[in-house]
Amino acid sequence: MANQTEGSTSASSGGKSVKFGKPGIIAVCAVAVCAVAGLITFFVLHGKNDLVASTIRFLRMQGEVALLDKNDENISIKEDMRLVDGNKVLTSQQSFAALSLDDYKVISLDQSSKTVINKDGKKLELNLETGALYFNVTKPLEDDEV
Question: Would you say the pTM of this structure is higher than 0.70?
Answer without folding.
Answer: no
